[in-house]
C-alpha cells in the first residue's frame, strides 16, 4: 500500500501567518515551489498559500505584498492528508476538494506536502487520469 509518507516531499517549509506575502513569494522562488503551508505561532497549520493567491488576491487587487500577511490569505481550514493515509485517500481528497497540493500531517505536525505531480509519478496511469480530470472540470 502506497501512503502519503511514501510519495510526499518531506520537510515542507512553512510561511508564518504573520509574515508578508512578499516574503512568501521570495521563499517560493528560492525553494522552487508553487505553494507554502501557512503556520501559526503555535506551529499548527493555518492554510496553504499558493503563487496564484499572491497574484490574484494581492497583486491584481493592487495591494502591497510587503503589507499583506500570509495568514490573511488563508481560506478556512486547510485540507490535509494523514501521513499514513493510502493513495486512494489522497486521490479522493484531492478530487473532492479540487486541490492540487495537500499538506501531510502526522498528528498535528506538518511532515511534508503531496502535489499532483507526486501522485502522477507514484500511481498507475488510470488513477492519475481520473485525478487530472476531476481537477480540470469547472
UniProtKB/TrEMBL annotation:
Signal peptide: none annotated. Residues 8-67, 73-131 form the CBS domain. SUPFAM superfamilies: CBS-domain pair (SSF54631). Transmembrane segments: none annotated. CDD domains: CBS_pair_HRP1_like (cd04622). It holds the Pfam family CBS. It comes from the Bacteria. This is CBS domain-containing protein. It comes from Streptomyces sp. 900116325. The lineage of its organism: Bacteria, Bacillati, Actinomycetota, Actinomycetes, Kitasatosporales.
